[in-house]
Specification:
Number of helices of chain A: 10
Structural class of chain A: alpha/beta
Number of strands of chain A: 18
Order of helices and strands of chain A: EHEEHHEHEHEEHEEEEHEEEEHEEEHH
Shape of chain B: globular
CATH architecture of the largest domain in chain A: 3-Layer(bba) Sandwich
CATH topology of one domain in chain B: Ubiquitin-like (UB roll)
Helix content of chain A: 25-40%
Strand content of chain A: 25-35%
Structural class of chain B: mainly beta
Radius of gyration of chain B: 14 Å
Shape of chain A: globular
Strand order of the largest sheet of chain B: 2-1-7-5-6
Number of domains of chain A: 2
Order of helices and strands of chain B: EEHEEEEEE
CATH class of one domain in chain B: Alpha Beta
CATH topology of the largest domain in chain A: FAD/NAD(P)-binding domain
Largest interface: A-B, 15 and 14 residues
Number of strands of chain B: 8
Helix content of chain B: under 10%
Oligomer: heterodimer
CATH superfamily of the largest domain in chain A: FAD/NAD(P)-binding domain
Number of helices of chain B: 1
Strand content of chain B: 25-35%
Radius of gyration of chain A: 21 Å
CATH architecture of one domain in chain B: Roll
């Protein structure tokens, strides 16, 4: 079979793959994207789709500022005819202990120092004002930003994929990448179940599935998959309720623009990429959340699903070049990656093009693990 | 208003002879129905065919799947929205209301905040 030729092959049709392909095409690279199933079918479309300024490390805060600015008008900017359902209903991080509150205060202080507007620390009375349906028992305080919120994770992916396609990117769905082509120690393309594609560079945006791809070039990429689950309820009329995340048990819930409530809880989970949901999760989530939001008592859960996180040892992403020439990765977002597609898609294209990234992401370098230079993101669950 | 119900069904026995006739309200109008009949059946017997108005296109909806699956018969019962009236038994004094839109959750004290 005669192989095809592109400048860059992107593995993964999630939001990072689609955004990276779009930004590569904008720079003039002949790009092909490969997705084993359909666009957004992996973790992106399964995510809780939170958007926020509220992070706790400098690099994430700087990237978040750019992401949030982009996401506000992304639909128009990408000429996407659908609805991204961008919805800044606010985002509450609730502390149940002094140390949690101290960390939230530290996060807000750092956000403000770096120029984020709108992040603030709330007292219990302040919590009641922004989220009047909460039972505040046991809560000590919170951090809050009214500009944080929600987006439709599917249309977000489609918007980037369509924009990439309009710039000439080959979007290959239902094609499985089965290997990497190596020539003289560097990556020179990909094998798939529908033939080979030669490429000068391969960008891996395979999320929780990244480890499998790294093994083809003898890289042990420390991205461990972890199942996460979500429940969704029937829709009810919109209420005054921001995304609420409780630090005592990792429970969170928010009302989506269509009126449904999305619920989840922190729980020990299996370390794999399976899509099987469990009964005990349904029980754990509802038992934890109902006392905190009693008004949800009569609402019905209509669906439950899973999506894997790709966790790294410090819950921070791995972004950039690898020891294997021609092989780049953007993965390991540990559950907060969806919202980083605008900034990091652009940065991946800059890195492949040999430019200095517009925001310094050297903290995310692959080599930090062997250097022992881990840096933990305190604002993630 | 006379109650329109099948009396002799070739297969089903509704047990109406043993059932108690109770009073309930539909949109504040008093009506009668058999206790433990599905609310939707009692409404139907009273000639009521529109149970809800859909949120987006504001279309009328009534009895459809009759097995608690389709969401067509969602009504507000005793203040609780999205009640599947086709599978919820009628009780004396129930306050049944047409549901317009998605339904509003209320706190225990019954106030809408």
């Amino acid at each position: 079979m005669v192989s095809k030729r592109v400048d860059v092959a992107v593995i993964g049709g999630g939001v990072h793959g689609c955004s990276t392909a779009y930004h590569l095409a904008k720079k003039g690279f002949k790009t092909a994207l490969f997705e084993r199933d359909y666009i957004s079918s992996g973790s992106s479309g399964r995510s809780a789709a939170g958007l926020r300024y509220q992070f706790g490390t400098e690099v994430n805060i700087r990237l978040a500022q750019y992401n949030m600015k982009c996401l506000k008008s992304l639909g128009e900017d990408l000429h996407y005819p659908g609805d991204l359902e961008y919805d800044p209903a606010g985002y509450l991080w609730i502390a149940y202990s002094e140390s949690q509150l101290a960390q939230l205060e530290k996060n807000v202080k750092l956000q403000n120092e770096l120029g984020t507007t709108g992040s603030k620390v709330l007292t219990v009375k302040g919590i009641q004002e922004v989220a009047p349906f909460l039972n505040t028992e046991g809560m000590l305080g919170a951090s809050f930003n009214q500009e944080d919120g929600h987006i439709n994770p599917h249309t977000l992916c489609f918007a980037y994929a369509d924009a990439a396609k309009a710039l000439g990117v080959e979007i290959n769905k239902k094609i499985t990448v089965t290997g990497l082509i190596s020539k003289g120690g560097q990556v020179a393309g990909i094998h798939t179940n529908k033939g080979d594609w030669e490429a000068d560079a391969v960008v891996c945006c395979a999320g929780a599935w990244t480890q499998n791809i790294g093994r083809w070039v003898d890289l042990d990429i420390p991205v461990i998959p972890e199942r996460h689950q979500i429940l969704i309820t029937e829709p009810v009329e919109r209420m005054k309720h921001p995304m609420t995340l409780c630090l005592d048990d990792g429970s969170y819930w928010k009302q989506c623009p269509n009126g449904t409530f999305m619920l989840g809880v922190g729980k020990e989970e299996v370390k794999d990429t399976s899509f099987y949901a469990s009964w005990d999760y349904l029980e754990a989530a509802t038992e934890r959340i109902l006392p905190k939001m009693p008004i949800l008592e009569h609402i019905r859960v209509v669906r439950q699903w899973t999506g894997p996180y790709g966790n790294t040892p410090d819950f921070q992403a791995i972004v950039g070049a690898t020891p294997v020439e021609g092989f780049y990765i953007d993965c390991g977002w540990s559950g907060h990656g969806l919202q980083f597609a605008p900034s990091v898609g652009r940065i991946m294209a800059e890195i492949v093009n040999g430019e200095k990234p517009f925001i310094d992401v050297s903290m995310f370098r692959y080599s930090r693990f062997e250097e022992g230079d881990l840096f933990f993101e305190p604002a993630c669950i | 208003m006379s109650i329109k119900l099948i009396k002799d069904h070739p297969i089903l026995d509704f047990g109406h002879e043993e059932k108690k006739m109770v009073t309930f309200t539909f949109d504040n109008k008093e009506m009668k129905g058999f206790e433990d009949d599905p609310i939707a059946a009692a409404l139907h017997a009273n000639g009521i065919q529109v149970y809800r108005i859909t949120p987006k296109t504001e279309r009328p909806r009534g009895f459809f799947c009759a097995i608690g699956k389709c969401s067509s018969c969602f009504m507000i019962v005793d203040g609780v929205p999205n009640v599947r009236t086709c599978v919820t038994p009628l009780k004396a004094g129930m306050k049944v209301e047409t549901q317009k839109g998605r339904g509003v959750l209320k706190s225990e004290e019954g106030e809408e905040r």
